[in-house]
């Protein structure tokens, strides 16, 4: 049986003593070929759990495995070959061009003092094209708009060529067309046996993009399952503390979520 790309079991984490746990006993997995969405209100623990999934934060208890191996027993370079991470707080003032940022994704595959080979440069160019950022290749990142920078950082994650992508709010600052482009690229990778864990706030997009959803509230798992099982008014109302309407998309049957706003 193929090991999951990511298996998190009963992890707990708090940012400081005497504060509530940010993640309180959560388990989840991402299998090859699967896109999993991590959803929930602010301060639910989504970003913390995403960092734990990449081995950037060590939980107080519980385990994190990447393709069956303890994530924290792996060397940093090997861990970066298995999982690529996009933070929601990437720096805006990097003194590099978009091409150079995309090439940074090749670092885990190079020796300590090795220079990029033609194959690495070709993968970086392909990743820029995949993120619709090839026309930005020679522009300094600091001069780009928020949406353009986001596409460049996505290209860096794609260039890393890891089996698992962990993307924290990857659609932030992206327009509608580029949101679709991102989801299409991630799902295309999944069809080739890779996988992704996406932290998303747009619930309709999460329902359309993901095979399974994991809903957190207050650091705890509130619901898990297919979009039709999780995106239900009573479940979302409990999680977000507000009334929502959920209707099936007339074209696809996927759940569409809208807040109920009185007028």
Describe this protein's structure.
This protein has 263 residues and is an alpha/beta fold. The protein has a domain at 6-92 and 164-259: Rossmann fold (3-Layer(aba) Sandwich). Helices cover 32% and strands 25% of the residues. The protein has nine helices and twelve strands. The chain has helices at 46-53, 76-82, 98-104, 118-130, 146-159, 176-191, 203-209, 227-230, 233-240; strands spanning 6-13, 23-30, 35-39, 61-66, 69-70, 83-86, 164-168, 195-199, 212-217, 220-225, 244-248, 255-259. The strands form three sheets. It has a six-stranded mixed β-sheet, sandwiched between helices. It has a four-stranded antiparallel β-sheet with strand order 2-1-4-5, covered by helices on one side. A hairpin with a 2-residue loop joins strand 9 (212-217) and strand 10. It is globular and about 55 Å long. The relative contact order is 0.17. The model has no long low-confidence stretch (mean pLDDT 94).
């Amino acid at each position: 049986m193929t090991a999951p790309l990511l298996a998190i079991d009963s992890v707990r984490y708090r940012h400081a003593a005497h504060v509530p746990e940010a993640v309180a006993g959560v388990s989840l997995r991402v299998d090859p070929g699967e896109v999993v969405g991590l959803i929930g209100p602010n301060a639910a623990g989504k970003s913390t759990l995403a960092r734990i999934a990449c081995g950037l934060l060590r939980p107080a208890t519980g385990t994190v495995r990447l393709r069956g191996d303890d994530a924290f027993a792996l060397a940093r370079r090997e861990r970066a070959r298995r999982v690529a991470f996009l933070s929601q707080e990437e720096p805006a003032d990097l003194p590099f061009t978009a091409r150079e940022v995309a090439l940074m994704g090749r670092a885990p595959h190079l020796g300590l003092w090795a220079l990029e080979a033609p194959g690495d440069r070709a993968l970086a160019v392909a990743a820029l094209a995949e993120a619709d950022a090839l026309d930005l290749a020679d522009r300094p990142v600091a001069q780009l708009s928020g949406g353009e920078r986001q596409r460049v950082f996505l290209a860096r994650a794609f260039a890393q060529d890891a089996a698992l992508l962990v993307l924290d709010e990857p659609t932030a600052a992206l327009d509608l067309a580029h949101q679709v482009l991102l989801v299409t690229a991630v799902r295309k990778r999944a069809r080739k046996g890779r996988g992704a864990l996406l932290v998303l706030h747009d619930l309709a997009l999460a329902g359309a993009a993901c095979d399974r959803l994991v809903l957190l509230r207050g650091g705890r798992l509130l619901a898990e399952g297919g979009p039709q099982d999780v995106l239900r008014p009573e479940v979302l109302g409990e999680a977000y503390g507000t009334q929502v309407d959920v209707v099936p998309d007339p074209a696809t049957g996927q759940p569409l979520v809208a807040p109920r706003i009185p007028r």
